[in-house]
Amino acid sequence: MNETAQRLMDMAEAHIRHAGYRGFSFRDLAAELGIRSASVHHHFPTKGTLVAAVVRRYGDRFLATVASRSSETEDDAISAYRSAFRTALERDGRMCLCGVLTAETGVLTPEVVEEIRSFFRRCIDDLTRRIGGSEAAARAYHVMATLEGGMMLARAYRDIGAFDQATASLA
Amino acid sequence: MNETAQRLMDMAEAHIRHAGYRGFSFRDLAAELGIRSASVHHHFPTKGTLVAAVVRRYGDRFLATVASRSSETEDDAISAYRSAFRTALERDGRMCLCGVLTAETGVLTPEVVEEIRSFFRRCIDDLTRRIGGSEAAARAYHVMATLEGGMMLARAYRDIGAFDQATASLA
DNA sequence: GTCTATAATTTGATAGAC
DNA sequence: GTCTATCAAATTATAGAC
Q1: pTM for the whole thing?
Q2: How far is A1 from chain B (nearest CA, A)?
Q3: Which residue in chain B has the smallest CA separation from A169?
Q4: Are B85 and B94 in contact (CB under 8 A)?
Q5: A20: nearest CB among B20, B99, B162
Q6: Whether the Cβ atoms of residue A144 and residue B149 lie closer than 8 Å to each other
Q7: Nearest to B95 by CA among B39, B161, B16
Q8: B 97-116 residues with CB below 8 A of A?
Q9: Is the CB of B14 inside 8 Å of chain A's CB atoms?
Q10: Per-residue pLDDT tens for B44-69?
Q11: How far from chain centre, in Å, is Cα A59?
C-alpha cells in the first residue's frame, strides 16, 4: 500500500463522512490529487474495493486509539470511546464513518456491508470484555448506540452540545 | 395533495429508508407507478421538494403515533417512542427516515436539512416536556440518541436483538 | 395529468499506449 | 503508474404537445 493509495483512502473517507458513499466519484479523488480517474482504478479496481479498505483501516485506527487512551477499567473504556468520537465531531462536524455508511446499506457491495458489521462487532466485543459482569453485553450495545445516535443528533443540530447532552450519563 | 402524490411520497420514503437520498430516481418512482418521469415532476418540481414533503409527513405521522399510544407520563412516552421505532424495524428492517438522511447531509438541499432538524427538535421537545424536571432535556437527548443508534446497530447486525439490548435500560 | 423528446451532466469502469 | 479516449448507463430537469 503506497502513499498514493493512502491519500486516496484519506480523501475517500473525508468525502464519505461528508456526504455518504455516493458523495464522491473516482473523478473527484483524481482531480484532488492531480491525476486522472483511470489512475485511481489502478490502485483500487472498483469503488467497493476502495471503500472496504477505508472501512477496515478506520476500524483498525479507531480500536488502536481507544486502546491507547484507556486502561482496562470500565469507566476508562467508555470515556475513551466517547472522547474518540467527540474529537472528530468537534474538529469538522463528522460523525462515525460506519454510522454514515449504515444508512446506505441498500446500495453497498457485500464486502463493504461485511466490513461495517465487523467494525461494530469489534467495538462491542471490546467494550463487553472491558465492562464485564452479567449485564456487560447489554451495556456495551447501549453505549455504542448512544454514542452513534449522539453524533447523529449533533450533526442534525449542527451543535456538539447535543452529543454532550445525549452522552453525559454514560460514564 | 392528491392520491398520485401520496403514492409517490410512499415510494420515495421506502426507497430512502432502504438506500438513502440517492437510492432512487424520479424514473424509478415513475416506473413503479406506470407513468413517466416527466409526470412525477408535475407533482413535485424537484427531488428536494419531494423529499422535504416526505420528511414533513413522516414527522407529523410519527408524533401523532407516539401521542396516541401514550398518556402524559414519562415512562409511557419513552415506551411509545421505543415501540414506534421498533415496529418499522421489525417489519422490514428499516431505521428512522431522518436517521438515514442525516448521514447524507452534505448533498441535501437546505430545505431538506431544515426539515430533518425540525423532526429531531419536535421529538426532543416533546420528550423533554413529558419527562419534566431539571434533567429532562438531557434525558430526552439521551433517549433519542439511544433509539436512533439502536436502529443503526440492528441494521448493521441484521438483528433486531441489537436494538432490544441497546434500549432495554431506557424505560 | 400525462406524454414524447431531449438537454446537459455525471457515473463506474475498461482498453491499450507510454 | 499514469495517460488518452471512450463506453454504456443513469441522473435531474425542461419544453411543449395532447
Answers
A1: 0.98
A2: 28
A3: B142
A4: no
A5: B20
A6: yes
A7: B16
A8: 98-107, 116
A9: no
A10: 999 999 999 999 999 999 999 999 99
A11: 7
Is A149's CB within 8 Å of B153's CB? no
Q: Which three cell numbers stand for residue B31?
A: 416506473
B55 vs B148: CA distance, rounded Å? 16
A19-53 confidence digits (pLDDT tens): 999 999 999 999 999 999 999 999 999 999 999 99
* Structure confidence at residue B1 (pLDDT): 81
In the block, residue with C-alpha cell 460523525: A95
pLDDT in tens, A86-136: 999 999 999 999 999 999 999 999 999 999 999 999 999 999 999 999 999
Nucleotides on chain D that have an atom closer than 7 A to a protein CB are 1-5, 10-16
Q: Is residue A50 a contact partner of residue A9, using CB atoms and an 8 Å limit?
A: yes
Closest nucleotide to B42's CA, by C1' atom? Answer: C1
How many residue pairs bridge chain A and chain B with CB atoms within 8 Å of each other?
A: 165
Upper half-sphere CA count for residue A150 (Cβ side, 13 Å): 28
Dist. CA B51–CA B13, nearest whole Å: 8
Q: Which amino acid is at B113?
A: V
Closest CA to B9 of B80, B61, B63: B61
Query: Are B127 and B81 in contact, with CB atoms under 8 Å apart?
Result: yes
pLDDT at B171 > cutoff 90: no
